[in-house]
Design brief:
single chain, about 375 residues, mainly alpha, about 80% helix, disordered N terminus
Length: about 375
């Protein structure tokens, strides 16, 4: 199967002549639903107030002085690192899709990945429940069925969790051996430990007891199916069966999974490095081992009802840096958090927004 994009940016055609350019319509509809009713604007306003209060506690004068003295070369290196990290995760996505005999050009899948990331980044708790939406966009933008798309997205997310926990464990082990975790850091560390056991356990239960999972889902769907003809129990059952069949096909190719895992690890390295580069930009002693712990821990703090975890991530990073590295003042820690989030969040919003427009245009 091939993925050819027409010169005018219109829909692409598969080898069988099937149009595969409806991802823009799916993305546009999904973004409209997520952005509508002023919730997005309200979320950003609340986050802005909270970030202002964070800076006020540290002293905006001292924070701005630290930012003015930043070496912007490292700031831009941090931005590039984030983009490269997301591109590697897009490549891992491509490898997983190839296991299902779905061939998508790297440029196309990376653009789709950035667009899907944009949708998640502007949604409260988007990262915690965005897989179905991303799978829908992917199924409309490629030859993949929705079930194959969802299986690939879930697999890629699980692969990305391995480096997430591994890097966090290495960083936490180093910190425990060389420093005392502050109380706030202990809470986040405990959260990482819980997730490290809970996520694999849930994945194992869902895989080994698929009949029970299917029965549970069908019990939830049955009342809805009785009220509308848009959903049927048999239809949902078939979708679940196809989803598990896709997972089985992926699991049957361990070498390809290992290949995808290499890109997942590489992507995590590039996604975490911007915090290290933020330290270089502000001349702060933020070591790589500290970065390995702080970035995953701050991700947990980002599970807030605000777009992209705004305010929560910034606060967590500032608290952890100031608590774990005594020579770094509170105001400098806040400045480092701002630089990191500029590179890892705001730049992604810009790049992802452009990617979203491109996905919509090409459909």
């Amino acid at each position: 199967m091939t993925d050819e994009t027409e010169p005018d940016g219109g829909p692409s055609l598969s080898a069988s002549g099937t149009e595969t350019g409806n991802g823009g319509e799916a993305l546009s509809a999904g973004l409209g639903e997520r952005i509508g009713k002023g919730k997005l604007l309200l979320g950003f306003l609340v986050a802005g107030v909270l970030i202002y209060l964070l800076g006020a506690v540290a002293g905006w004068g001292r924070v701005l002085d630290a930012l003015e003295g930043a070496r912007y070369r490292w700031v831009w290196v941090a931005c590039v690192s984030t983009v490269v990290g997301l591109a590697f995760w897009g490549k891992a996505w491509q490898v997983v899709l190839a296991m299902l005999d779905i061939e998508v050009r790297l440029r196309r899948i990376v653009v789709t990945y950035f667009a899907a990331t944009f949708a998640n980044y502007i949604t409260p708790l988007g990262q915690a429940g965005g897989e179905p939406f991303i799978a829908y966009v992917l199924s409309q933008d490629t030859e993949a069925s929705y079930e194959d798309s969802l299986a690939s997205v879930v697999t890629a997310d699980l692969l990305n969790l391995l480096p997430f926990f591994n890097f966090a464990a290495v960083g936490m082990a180093y910190l425990l051996l060389n420093a005392t975790l502050p109380e706030n850091a202990e809470t986040l560390a405990q959260g990482l430990v819980v997730l490290a056991f809970a996520v694999p356990a849930l994945a194992y239960v869902g895989w080994r007891h698929r009949d029970g999972v299917e029965a549970f889902v069908l019990r939830l769907v049955a009342p809805l199916a009785g009220r509308t003809d848009r959903v049927s129990v048999d239809g949902v059952r078939n979708r679940i069966d196809r989803f598990y069949h896709a997972l089985e096909r992926i699991a049957d190719e361990p070498r390809s999974l290992l290949f995808a895992l290499v890109f997942s690890y590489t992507g995590w390295v590039f996604f975490a490095l911007p915090l290290y580069f933020s330290g270089l930009a502000l001349d702060l002693p933020i070591g790589l081992t500290l970065v390995l712990f702080v970035v995953p821990a701050s991700t947990l703090a980002g599970l807030t009802p605000l777009p992209g975890g705004l305010a929560g991530v910034e606060t967590a990073i500032a608290v952890l840096i100031a608590g774990l590295v005594p020579p770094i003042s509170w105001s400098s820690a806040v400045a480092a958090a701002i630089v990191y989030r500029f590179a890892s969040y705001w730049v992604v919003l810009v790049v992802g927004g452009v990617a979203s427009l491109w996905v919509i245009r090409r459909s």
